[in-house]
Amino acid sequence: MYTDISIEDFRQQFxxxxxxxxxxxxxxxxxxxxxxxxPGAVNxxxxxxxxxxxxxxxxxxxxxxxxTGVRSAQAALFLVSMGYEQLxxxxxxxKGWRESGGEISTSDDISGS
Length: 113
Hints:
Blueprint: E1 3-5, H1 7-15, E2 23-26, H2 30-35, E3 42-43, H3 49-52, E4 62-65, H4 70-81, E5 87-90, H5 93-99
Parallel strand pairs: 1-5, 2-3, 2-4, 4-5
């Protein structure tokens, strides 16, 4: 099972450093990611997800994000079916992140956290 996580809980649990190392994976398409993403998010588009699943470290929590939380939930559900654990779906997605005052990056530096 994956866990839906609110933006506030994501900030408290992961961005505060309390949760340790984690992966933030943006499953939107490359053009959407390039137009603006949460800093530190690695882009693995849902359209390429099955072919690139080995890029996800099953030893670290993975937080999935898209525009509103629908595609990211699909990605998390797929990994649940493969036996992955510590999976989170960021509710409200990048849109909610932006609306809550979260920083948006357009940098090409998409290295993980």
